[in-house]
Structures are given as structure tokens and as C-alpha cells.
Predict the structure.
Amino acid sequence: MIVEALAFYMFAFIAVAAGVLVISSKNPVHSVLFLILAFFNSAGLFVLLGAEFLAMILVVVYVGAVAVLFMFVVMMLDINFTELRSGFLQYLPLGGLVGLILLAEMVVVAGGWQSIAGGAKLAEAAAPIVKSTSNTHALGEIVYTHYVYLFQAAGLILLVAMIGAIVLTHRRRTGVKRQRIADQNARGTDTVEVRKVEVGKGI
Amino acid sequence: MIEILAVFLPLVGAALAGVIVFMPQADKHKQHKMDTLAQWITCTGLVLSAICAIILFKDVALDGNARVTELFTWIDSGSLEVSWALRVDQLTSVMMIVVTGVSAMVHIYSCGYMHHDKSIPRFMSYLSLFTYFMLMLITSDNLVQLFFGWEGVGLASYLLIGFWYDRPSANSAAIKAFVVNRVGDFGFALGIFATFMLFDTVNLDTIFEAVPGKADATLNVFGGEFHALTVCCLLLFVGAMGKSAQLGLHTWLPDAMEGPTPVSALIHAATMVTAGIFMVARLSPMFEYSEVALTVVTIVGASTCIFAATIGCVQNDIKRVIAYSTCSQLGYMFFACGVSAYSAGIFHLMTHGFFKALLFLGAGSVIHAMSDEQDMRKMGGIWKHIKVTYILMWIGSLALAGIPPFAGFYSKDIVLEAAWGAHTGVGQYAFWLGITAAFLTAFYSWRLLIMTFHGTPRADETTMAHVHESPMVMVLPLVVLAAGACLAGVLAYDLMVGHHMAEFWGKSIVVLEHHKAMENAHHVPLWVKLLPLVVGVAGIAMAYVFYMFAPGIPGAIAARFQGIYQFLLNKWYFDELYDKVFVKPSFYLGRNLWKTGDGTLIDGLGPDGVSAAVKNIARRASALQTGYLYHYAFAMLAGIVVLVTWYLLTKAG
Amino acid sequence: MSIDQIIPALPEIFVACMIMALLMLGVFQKGALADQDVKSFRLISGLSVGVLGLTILLVVMLADRQLMAFNNMFVVDGFATYAKVLVLIASGCAIVLSAGYMERNGVARFEYAVLVVFATLGMMMMISANDLISLYMGLEMQSLSLYVIASFQRDDQRSTEAGLKYFVLGALASGMLLYGASMVYGFSGTTNFSVLADLLKGGTPSVGLVVGIVFVVAGLAFKVSAVPFHMWTPDVYEGAPTPVTAFFAVAPKIAALALFTRVMMEPFGEAADSWRQVIIFISVASMILGAVAAVAQKNIKRLMAYSSIGHVGYALIGLCVANETGVRGILVYLAIYLVMNVGAFACILCMKRGDRMVEQISDLAGMSKTHPTIAFAFLVFMFSMAGVPPLAGFFAKLYIFWAAVDAGLMAVAIIGVLTSVIGAFYYLRIVRVMYFEDAEDPLDAGVSRELKILIGVTAFIICFFFIQPNLILEPAAAAAKALLAG
């Protein structure tokens, strides 16, 4: 029990600290690295909950794909984050105040947590973590039956995202030279002149 | 059927001419053709209508076929049932003769007079429209239809006075006529309401039948109990005073002379202004039951009669002199009605219609000849150049002054005799004022004649060289009217006020037994019969002395009695009085309410204040919209914090 | 899972399949040449309108009783049918409106129509959501499509900026919504609307649950652009291509308001007393801001943005009332709002000069001379939006205020009337500019046929709604009844 609790606090603390560092570090590359750290710790939290499938997915997708993509983008676009954040301190008092109020309120609300009658049972029903089957198996059982609607909808949303990405990036620009292989092949010899250039002289 | 034709032909003419108004032609020649077409249409309509009126007169008045023709139901709401109906009885048929006859003459005359005007179709259309409304008024079978015609002629009069709308004076005169008439019309409308309250109907026949039963009824007005019929009659009489320009509400009539002269002849001499007399005669069954109302009518009539005559003596504008003369003659008619001599009043109305139209059109002819000069001080010595007009003006003046055998003699005499014959105090008041007015009438008529036609020419040479007799199309109507002025009196005397009076009027005029003015009028002492003639001749003689033989006298008198002269010249200061008492205060009040009340208080605190505040807030609200993403995001977060905090503090706390 | 389990979702499945088909068709149509783009744009647009039309038929066929599908995550009832029909009409009109503009501005690409239909699918899913998760799925599908078409005019900086702003703020709003949903789940143990409704029956809800609801409300308020979550609206409306703005102003608003209504009435209806003040705050703030801020606007699209904020405020009054008359008021309002806005935007799309779109209010000057008919129709729409009787907009407001007064919310109704008076000011200002100011440089003559037809039909409906109001009133009443019964 103690080990579990210690692990939880460690993961939680590191995740939150990494989150803060993501937005506070000056170098964007560091930010992305801290983000990856936060992902790893979140995955750890999932493992503690017994949701090993989610943990692995998080690592594979977010760390393996998304964060690396971020890294590429950040390194390719030379954005000066320091300049972007220049007014940061100016807004800190007011923003911090709002944040603190919200935090206090959330604490109050969470402190008064009580499940309404029958709620506990429902909560159990929605968390089918059973020792006898693996996460993957359990998810697979409901994703294609119980949640088929949401699963398909999510697929469609991804399709929208894909179309959107294509629409916004793949566009016809004027003044851009493209390679047209058919044109190249159809070109005869008359457009090309072969000359002999003497050594040491230009044309 | 024939009455429908008589009433609606002018409307058709007006509508057709109205259509032509909206088809202006660029080509001058074509425009002239269109103008001629409009003139032909309206004149034909009116002449046909006049012929119908004559046939009707024969049928209705001479053969005694009074009738009501229902057209259709107009309003049917609760106990108020009003239908369009043409009521043609003796009274109406006499009026129709006057209205259509004079109107037809004026239409023809206008073809010549308005020759140079650029909107002839519009003018002809208005004239015909006016005639239609007037006919509607005199043929009405109920008070509402009467009111319709009443307002209609008011509208047409407004349009015609302001016909030359590019002249500011014409515009203000038109507005004045309209506004002053509104005062009268307000009384008239109240009178109709009171009558409806009393009788629960607006139908004339039903009212007349019910009048004897309501002779003693009372009506609660402002907390006091008043004799109901008196209240109704007085309110209705206020309307009559407005339309017929009686003392107090007369101020619009002289100003109305701003309109073209044919309009003055048609509307402001012969027809519309007599609507008030017609109304009183038409409602004689009601007025008969209210001694108070009759007394008021007599006093107002007699006072107007003398009042207008005095002013007429000092005016210099030829049309204004005739206008005041009209005002004065209307006074005669009213006090005739006031002493229950309705037939005498209508008789005078008819003869007056002819000779006053003649005088106006004659004056128009003079003005036409003098190149639109209206001031008599700038005329004189033109009789040799326009002999026909001169003779016709003489005929008109003789009729007006009451010299036998012209029409005015018969009608004025019977009116004055009836006033004497009433044997009442107010009757005497009316008689003596009437006699004095008769003297003044003769005086100013000849003053007009002499100043206009005799003496040395006072106009400049170019004008004098241009003086010419009017074309045939203008002279011919004058001749017709002159014939009326000569003969109408002698022909109709017996019929309308003489021995056959009772059969002639039939049921259209009701006079109670104890009102014996008409009966007594035929048995007055000889001096009463002769007095009007004597003062008339005396008036003429005095005019000759003053303006022909000793031209210095008027100036001397005017200088000696400067106060009286100014008083008369300024028309008893009525306009100034009204200006001070009503116009200025209302302007003042209006301006104050507008600037202080509306502008500063209501607008300042209301619309303007609010809109200024809104604009201010709007600017601030737009300023919040900075365009920075993090501002927006922050606003959202702040919003949710506010919402959650608010909830926690109010509900959960 | 048997086949009859998915029958309620038939229209959505149909639309989804058709989207794929259209996508394939478009892709294979597309050649290397620019004019081929226009051709395929026209083809796909036309087909999309056809698909939406067919979907209306399918939706109407499924009407008249409540059906559940996919383990109660998806619901079809009278309310959903009514809202879906409105949304489908709005989307169809938006595609029709776009035709000329897109071609003129060189962004005629067939993906536009596909994305609009995608957004429509998302809206239909939102309307039929019976679970917080399916709600979120629908919302995201709609939003993602909208983000893309907001920046569809990629070469235009303002359009790109609009899309980006919308995306970032939309993500924030989604975050709030999800946070709220998770709180609701944490405090109740379920995300299903029917179960939530049962749980809340009797007894006051816990504080945490209501705070969760407030977060959900914030997320939804963003989608309907209610104050204080409206900040994106003016910028996005101004920046996005005009037909896209027209689409934004109508279809997503209707869908989001319908969803808003369902969420507040169905699962949380029993807790109305707890959340009412929040909605009243949002509604009143929206009405006031919509009326006041619009006064200072110079750009007509920005003005329409504030106008739509105001209209949402009015519609939300019906939600404050939280009963059947209130819901009916909202539904009537949405239908009339749809017609007015389609017409108004069609008029705005007629504003071009020298073959370029213009969008300043001052550009409208002299429109009464260059386009007398269009100007008159615009006048009708403006008067209707200002709530001048007997135009339809007056009745829309009337039913809403009526419901509020009936429920004793006098103060809200009075504020509503006051703000609509202020609002009348800027609507009438447009009329003044059109009719009483002379243009130095008049607008181009000539308006495409589709616009003419749309303007004519919508103006006709607005003018003559009062003759046969039952055509909208009765379905709306039935829909409201269906929602409250469910």
C-alpha cells in the first residue's frame, strides 16, 4: 500500500512540476522535453490505476508520435518564444488571482464530494477493471459493441481533421514551379542546344 | 337617376382632368392640346350637370316631387347607420341651380382667365372636385354625409386658395383658411356628436321627426344641465360660422382672395360660404325649437353684416372690397334665418350667388385687363376701354345695392322686412343694422365703380396701353350671370317668398306657428318698405359726392378721424388680436414645449440621453474587443470563475 | 446488435456514407487545371444540397416518437426532428449562398461543401446526443469542420487568423466542457442523460454536480456565442469568408442552442432552480452586449456578429423559463432567426463593387437606388430583426417575452424589451444608410439568381408569417412537448 501511495505522489508531483516547466522554460526544446516527461508520469499514473493499455497507448502515441512531431515543428520553425511571452509577467497578478479563486473553489467542491444515492454502484459499473481479463481484451469488447457509435464518430472526426489538414496546406499557388513529368518527356530536342565549351572560357 | 348624374358628373370630370394632370407633355403644343381637353371635359360635365339641375328643379320644386335616392350603406356600426343617399327636395334643388349654374359659368370663364397658367388641368380638376363636394353637401341625407361634403369643400378650398403654391402669401392664406375652418369644423363635429347622443341617429328625417318630442330634453355639459337642442344647434352653428365667415371666424375670407379670381367667385362668394346658411335652413326643424340659438344666429348675422360693411368702405384692393361685401351679405342671410325667415335667407342666397359671382368675375375681368393689378388706387378711367365689363359691373352693383328691379332689391327688402316683422328686440337690432349696412353697401359699391372706372387713369402708361376687353369666353358667362342678377329676383319672388311660398318650400323648411316674421313681412309700414331703397340711393349719391365731385373729402375725413380710419383699415384689428391672443401664445407655447419640454427634458433624459449613453458604452464594449487571443481566453476564464463564484456564494453558501 | 437498433440513426448514417461518396467523387473529378476545380466545386455543392434535402426527408420519416439507439447514447424525438430540419435547411442555404462568392474569390474547392456537410453531421449528432460523450463527439466533429472552413480562404490573412482564433478558443471551451462533464460524472457516476434525469429527480443536486453543470454551460455558451464566452464571434465573423459567416450565424447556432436546450431540460431539468441564475446572467448579458456594442460597428459582418449575440440572448430567455412554453419560444425563435439571417446574409452577399466584395456599412449607401428590390428586402429583414410588427421577428420575440412574463420573470422580459429598442437603432441605421445616403461610388448591379430566389423566399416568409403562424407554431409546440415528455 505504502509503495503504491509513494509512487502515486511521485508521479503526480513530477507530472505537475513538468507541466509548470513546460510553460515556464525559456527554450522551446526544453518545453517539449518537459511535456514528454509529463506524459511519462501520466502513463505511470495510469499503470497505478491498473489501466496498462492506456498507459502504453499514451507512451506510444503521445510520446512517440505527437511529442516528436512537436519537436520537429519547434525546431524547424524558428519562433522566438521569449518575445511572445514578453507580456507574461504583466498579466500574472490578475491571471494568478483568477486561477487561485478557481483553485480554491475546486478544493471546496472536491471537499464536499459525496456521491448521490446509487451513484457508487453506477460508478462501479462504468469501471470494468477485472483481474481475469486484460485491459486490451476488455476495451476491445466494449469499444466495438457498447461504444461503437462513439468509436465510429471518433473515426469520422479524424477524417475531418485529415481533410482539414489537406485543405489548409495543399493548395494551388501561383508562381510556384512544379515538376510535370509528362511535359518533360514530351519535350523534343529543339528546346535544348548542346554546345561545346572550351576549357577556361565561358559562353 | 338624374340627381346621380347631376352630382357625379363633376366628379367624373375632376377624375379625368386629374388623370391628365399626371400626363405632362414636354411639347408645348401638345400640352396645350391636353389643357384644352381637360377644359372641355370639365366644362361639359358641369354644363350637363347644370342642365340636370334645371330639370330637377322643374321636377322637384315646381312639380313637388321631393325624394331621397339611396346609393348604398356606408357605415353600419351599432346603432350608427349611415348610408350614401341623395336627398333632393325644394331647398336642395334651389341650391343645385345656384351651385351648378355658377360653377358652370366659372368653369367656362376660367378657360379664358387661366389661359396663361401652366397647370390648367390641375385647376380644372380642383374646380370640378369642389363642385362635386358642394353637391354632396347639399344633397346629403344625414349629418355624416353633410360633414363629408363640408370637409370636402374645405379641402378643395384649401387646394384652390393655395393653387399658386409658389407664392408664400397664397400658402399662408390657404393654411389660414384651413385652420380657421378647423375651429368651426370642430364645433360642427361636436354638434354632430351631440345630435347623435340625443337622437341616436344621424339621419335627417328621423331627427326631424323626433325633434318635437325632445323639445324639452336636457343635456349634461361640463356638469351643467342645458337645453339639449340649444347645445346641438349652437355647436352646429359654430361650424356654420366658420364656413360662412361670420364675425369672429371671418378672418380667412379676405385672405382667401389670394386664390385665382374664378375661385373667389365660385367658392368664396357664390357657393361654399353659403354652406352655413344652407345648413341652418336645412336644420330649420331643429333651430326652430331653440329660441336661444335663433337669437344668437340673428345677433351674429346682424353684427357681421355691419362690421364687414364698415371695413368694405376703406379697403383698396378690389377683390377685398367684394370679399367684405360677401361677408356682409352673408350676415343678412343669417339674420334672416335667425328670425325664422329661412325662405328669405335662401332667396337672398340665390340672388346673391348670381350678382356676387358677376361682380367677382367682373373684377377678374378688370384685373385681367389691368395686367393683374388689384389695387383700386392704381386704376381709374378705364371705362371707355372695357365697356362691356363696365356695364356688367354696373348691373352687379345695382343688384348689390338693392336698386329695383334688380335681384338684390327683392331679396334684401324681404330680408329686412322680415327682420322688422319679427317684432322682437333682436329683430329690431338686425333691422337697423341691416339698414345702415345697406347704406354702406351702396356707398362702397359705387366707390369701387368710380375708383376703378372713372377719373383720371392712375396706372402707368404701359398698363393703360394694354387695357383690353376680355375674350368672348370670359364675357359670355358674365352676361349669363348678369341676366340672373337682373331677373332672378323678379321671377322667383312670388315663388320663394311671396304668396306661393308655402306650396313651394313644402316640407323642406319648417317654421313654427308663433314665428310670424315672414307673414308680417308682407304687412309692414310703407316707410319700412322704402327705407332700404332710400338709403341705397343715398349711399350711391354720397359715393358720387366723395369720389367724383369732391375727391378731397375722403382724405380729409380720414385725416380728421384718423383713429376710426385706421381701425377700419385694419379690419377692426381682428387679425392682430388673434395673432396676439391665439397665434403668438400657441407659437410661444409650442416653441417652449418643443425646446424646453421636448428638446431638453424629454429628449435630453430620454432618446438623446439614452442614445448618448449607449454610444458611450458601445465604444467601451468595442474597446474590449482587442483582437488578442489571450484576452479572449482570459475573458472566458474570468467569466466561468464569476459564474461559479456567484453560484457558490448564493446557492451553496 | 440488431439492425433495428441503428434505424434511429439512419439519417446520420446516410449522411456519413454520402460524405465519403462525395469525397471520392470529388477527388477523382479533380484534375490539374484550375477550371476543373470550379467544375467539381459546383458538382459537389449541388450534390451536397441534394443529400441534405434527402436527409430532411429521412429525418421527417423518423419523426413522431422517441427512439433510442446505441445503448441510449443517441435519441430521436420530435424535438430532434424539428431542430434537425432547421439545421439541414440552414446548411443547404449556406451552400447555395456560397456558390458565387467562392468562385469569385478563387477558393472554389469541393472540400468546402464536404466540410459543410460534415459540420452538419456533427450538428445532427449534437442534437440527438443523449450522453455527455456523444454530445462531445458531435460537438467536436462540428467544431473541427468549422475551424477549417473559417480559414478556408487560406491566402487571406484575416480568414486564417479567424480560423486560428476560433480553433484555440474552441479548444479552450471544449476543455471547459470536458472538465464540467468529468465533474458531472464524478459526482453522479454516469454520463447518460436519462440516468442523470432519474438521479436528479427529487432532492437538491450536490454542489459539485452543479459546478460541473456550470462548466458544461460555459462550454455550450461558447458554441452559441453567449456573453462572456462570445469574444471570438466578432473577429471570426469578420475574418471568415462571408458565406462561411452566414453559415456560422445560422446552422451551428441552431444546433448548439438545441443541444443547450436538451442538456438543460433533459438531464438537468430537475435542477433548474440551481442553474437558472447562470442562464439568466448569460442571457441578460448577451442581450445588453449584443444591443449596445453593435451600435459602434462599421463592418456589417461584425454588426451581424453582435446581432447574433443579441439574438442568442433573447432565445436563452426561453431557457431561463425552463418549461414547455419557454422551449416552444426558443424553437419558434430559432426558425424565424434562421429565415431572417439567411435573407440578411444573402443581401450582404449582394454587396460588391468593381467585382470585389465590400462589407462596410457605409458601402450600403444608395443601395435603394442601385438595387431597389434587394434594399427593400434588406429593410424587411432589418425591421424584422428589430422586432417591428407585423413582421416575423416581432412574433419571435413576442413568444419569448410571453413565456418569460408567464413564468414571472418580469425583469428579464423588461430588459429584453429595452435592449430590443436599443437594437432597433442599429438595424434602422442600416436602413437609413441604404435609403437616405447617396453613394459616391455605387455598388455593382446584377445579382445572381440563387441569391434572388433566396432573398425573395425569405422576405416573403418574414412578411407573411403572421397570416399562417401555425405552420411554425404547431411543430414547435409539438417538439417542445416531446422534449419535456422525454
About this structure: The first strand of chain C starts at residue 67 and ends at 69. Residues 157-188 of chain C form the longest helix (32 residues). The mean pLDDT of chain C is 89. Chain C touches chain A through 48 residues (CB under 8 Å).
